[in-house]
């Protein structure tokens, strides 16, 4: 598929980027690749001994405000695993914390809010983010990284539902009752809250792109708790606006929208205006491709828990995903959610090698001449036998 087909109708031409030829950027755009790209959500973090050594004690928000440390922590997994992209070391609550909403990140728990969002009066506590003055350390760290990294840097922000959920619930939640109550009891207030959070995410993402990030992922991690109807009515409009505004200021930027448990939302998420949709492990990747449709790349979707045991188990699952990805372009290999802290880094290292060695989605050799190939993949994955005939599907 051509590049133009992945762009919004009438979208401006994209500025050439330093990593336009990288497997990660090319796969996001549905172009052929020299190898299937792979990176891991939460690849920088507690599963790496070098992370624990460099990070030191204290809140992660303090670590995030030190550009040299951020550059080191962002680069560590790229150096160790040989991933095809780096994810910027930061957190989804940084913009809200930076405007003084009163958010911290408790080790082992996640974001905690001292005075949760309750009423219209709390909107005043969410003034617009001014990245140059509120988060200069983000800009500085991205600038450092865009000079030093040999792979694209993925900037990110939290999606509107997920950030709102922390602010309204006051911390991590299982059932999201308070945020759901607010959405339905006061849709006008919900709308104002989500629009403000979207403006903050947009300002942050633009500052990361201006500083040299090559791509963007929006983590709407907990949106899968919503019904498709409520997602479509109460979250998708702001999400679409976010990506449309990004496309007008930074045309052609590869963008990914991800959430956990979003099997029933994938078709809707695919209309948000991104290049790719992230998929968790619950939906087989070939089924996810059908739900997302032929014009989007898909990212995923190895169950992170399957990296906790033997290499044989992780290898079999990785191979199954590579088979389900088919041969058409537009697959970025990843986990279905973040790396678990107890993961042996050696397993992830081997996953990267295996994806690079055996991944075949969009390989130049398959699609180099734009010729439609009809490759029959017939792989024996342990006990499961999968036959995939993938000449026609995918992004061609
Ligand atoms: O490699 C990377 O992905 C690092 C960058 C990163 C962090 N948080 C660093 C971090 C990214 C992309 C995030 C995003 C993030 N933060 C999300 C979306 C991704 C997802 O997992 O769904 C969410 C929901 C948050 C909020 C948050 N921050 C949680 C739930 C936690 C975990 C709490 C814990 O300690 O287990 C955090 C803390 C956090 N953010 C850590 C890291 C490395 C671990 C704590 C630390 O090292 O101090």
SSE layout:
Blueprint: H1 23-28, H2 49-55, H3 60-64, H4 67-81, E1 86-87, H5 94-98, E2 103-106, E3 110-113, H6 131-134, H7 136-148, E4 153-158, H8 160-169, H9 177-185, H10 187-210, E5 215-219, H11 228-234, H12 236-249, E6 255-258, H13 266-269, E7 276-278, H14 285-292, E8 297-302, H15 311-325, E9 331-335, H16 345-358, H17 364-367, E10 376-381, E11 384-389
Parallel strand pairs: 1-4, 4-5, 5-6, 6-7, 7-8, 8-9
Antiparallel strand pairs: 2-3, 10-11
Q: Could you walk me through the main structural features you see in this protein, from its secondary elements to its overall organization?
A:
With 396 residues, the protein is of the alpha/beta class. The protein has one domain (3-389): TIM Barrel (Alpha-Beta Barrel), CATH 3.20.20. The chain is built from 17 helices and eleven strands. The chain has helices spanning 23-28, 49-55, 60-64, 67-81, 94-98, 131-134, 136-148, 160-169, 177-185, 187-210, 228-234, 236-249, 266-269, 285-292, 311-325, 345-358, 364-367, and strands spanning 86-87, 103-106, 110-113, 153-158, 215-219, 255-258, 276-278, 297-302, 331-335, 376-381, 384-389. The protein has a seven-stranded parallel sheet. A two-stranded antiparallel ribbon has the order 2-3. Helix 4 packs parallel to helix 7 (136-148), helix 10 (187-210) runs parallel beside helix 12 and helix 15 (311-325) runs parallel beside helix 16. The radius of gyration is 20 Å and the shape is globular. The N and C termini lie close together (5 Å). The protein binds coproporphyrinogen III (CP3). Coproporphyrinogen III (CP3) is lined by residues 41-46, 55, 60, 87, 89-92, 105, 107-111, 156, 162, 219, 221, 338. Coproporphyrinogen III binds next to strand 3.
């Amino acid at each position: 598929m051509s590049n133009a087909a992945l762009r919004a109708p009438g979208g401006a031409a994209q500025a050439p980027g330093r990593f336009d030829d990288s497997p990660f950027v090319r796969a996001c755009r549905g172009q052929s690749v020299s190898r299937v790209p792979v990176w891991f959500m939460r690849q920088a973090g507690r599963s790496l001994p070098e992370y624990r050594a460099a990070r030191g004690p204290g809140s992660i928000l303090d670590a995030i405000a030190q550009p040299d440390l951020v550059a080191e922590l962002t680069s560590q997994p790229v150096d160790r695993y040989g991933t095809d992209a780096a994810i910027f070391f930061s957190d989804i609550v940084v913009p809200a914390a930076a405007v003084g909403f009163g958010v911290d990140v408790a080790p082992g728990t996640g974001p905690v809010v001292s005075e949760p969002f309750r009423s219209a009066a709390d909107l005043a506590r969410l003034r617009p983010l001014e990245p140059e003055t509120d988060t200069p350390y983000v800009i500085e760290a991205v600038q450092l990284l865009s000079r030093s990294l040999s792979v694209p840097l993925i900037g990110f922000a939290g999606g509107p539902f997920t950030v709102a959920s922390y602010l309204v619930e006051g911390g991590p939640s299982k059932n999201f009752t308070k945020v759901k109550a607010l959405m339905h009891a006061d849709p006008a207030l919900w709308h104002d809250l989500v629009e403000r959070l979207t403006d903050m995410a947009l300002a942050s993402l633009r500052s990361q792109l201006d500083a040299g990030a090559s791509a963007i992922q929006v983590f709407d991690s907990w949106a899968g708790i919503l019904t498709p109807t409520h997602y479509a009515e109460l979250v998708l409009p702001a999400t679409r606006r976010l990506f449309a505004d990004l496309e007008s200021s930074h045309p052609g930027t590869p963008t990914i929208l991800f959430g956990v448990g979003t099997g029933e939302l994938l078709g809707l998420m695919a209309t948000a205006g991104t290049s790719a949709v992230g998929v968790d492990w619950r939906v087989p990747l070939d089924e996810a491709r059908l739900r997302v449709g032929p014009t989007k790349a898909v990212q995923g979707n190895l169950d992170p828990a399957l990296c906790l045991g033997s290499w044989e188990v992780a290898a079999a699952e990785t191979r199954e995903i590579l088979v389900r990805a088919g041969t058409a372009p537009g697959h970025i290999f990843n986990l279905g959610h973040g790396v678990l802290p107890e993961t042996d880094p050696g397993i992830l290292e081997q996953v990267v090698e295996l994806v690079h060695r055996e991944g075949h989605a969009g390989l130049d050799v398959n699609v180099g001449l734009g010729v439609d190939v009809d490759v029959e993949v017939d792989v024996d994955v342990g006990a499961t036998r999968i036959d995939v005939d993938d000449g026609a599907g995918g992004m061609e």
